[in-house]
Fold:
Amino acid sequence: MSYECKHFCIDELVDKHTLLSLGEEDCWKLFDTKALKAIDQLREEFGSVTINSWKWGGSSQWRGFRTQNCGIGASRSMHKVGKAFDLSFKNYTAEEVRKKIKKNESFWTQYISRIENNVSWLHIDVKETETPIRWFNP
Structure:
């Protein structure tokens, strides 16, 4: 069995169609374990956070796993291979979280490989990189 998050249900990580098509157990297998551990650690460190909100009537459904036919993002996005998430925190702005991660970057390298700058959400992924954390612009 693959890793299941301590702080997220699968509805928060995949779109409704994928969940209905594959079922909960197989949806967990879509994700890289390091990516799932990263979002658990982010929730532990920064508190309440939203990824997808469709289950509760919100409009977000592509901030976790994205299917190959999803028109959002790059064709080779880490979201499409279960290695990326876009997060919005209740008590912090994305920039505040990025600054706190930078201050303790050596800790966060065990969880995160890349972070996107200059966006209103926190994009993290676990794509292989040569630097501890690669900070990139959209």
The first helix runs from residue 16 to 22. The first strand starts at residue 49 and ends at 50. Residues 12 and 77 are 19 Å apart (CA to CA). The radius of gyration is 14 Å.
